[in-house]
Amino acid sequence: MSAIPVGAPVPAVPRGAPLYPRAAFYYLLATVGAVAAFVPSYFSRLQENDAVRHAHGIVGFAWMLLLVTQAFLMRSRKVALHRRLGKAAYVLAPAFVISGLLIVRAMASGATGFEQHFGARLAWVDLLSVSTFGTCVYMAIRDRRQVQLHARWMTCTALLLLPPVFVRLEQALPFIHSFEQAMNVAFGLTELIIVLLLVGDFRQGQRRLPYRALLAVTAAQQVGFVMLDGVPGWAAFAYSLGHLG
């Protein structure tokens, strides 16, 4: 399919047809992948995790279930129910952001050997993730009457969760030899998925912000994770975050 020239009319989504008809399946696949990824570090060690991590995990799981359900409702053309259920975002999104920030604080505290080694760099990654998640939800709500933008902003909230899922799933692969390697592969896979979505938009003549912005954020996360290692100023800032209060 050839690209549509800039300025040409953008083909409309047929009335009643969902923008992403397979979105519910992909959201469900991401949810199942997340559960599998967090079995070793969370589900198999529930008693070792604190209330903040429990809250973050529960809210994150609820958010993914909301995405699955909302996509299914749109595919079933139950728009009124979709809108009513969407109000749950006003509770889930702030809870996810707040619990995420508390986890960033814990990660930056350097309480464990892993956190001492990677906490400052992961604080950068997680701060960008949490702030971008909140921004995407805000934009999705603002653009709720523009289905093309709304659907993409909501999809971005799911894509933000992919790097931590990928990095945990990769631990079982024989060719992954370090956490740094796993992180870079996870970012690369996420960036590839975003690029494929951008290509799909390009082929349909779409020039929209969400995926381009998310690709920039993901690249910034990866660059920061690599480049901030040993940077004294950032390490000091992360340490101060970890010891607030």
From TrEMBL:
UniProt keyword annotations, A-Z: Membrane, Transmembrane, Transmembrane helix
Segments passing through the bilayer: 24-43, 55-76, 88-108, 120-141, 153-169, 181-202, 214-239
Recorded superkingdom: Bacteria
Protein name: Uncharacterized protein
Lineage: Bacteria, Pseudomonadati, Pseudomonadota, Gammaproteobacteria, Lysobacterales
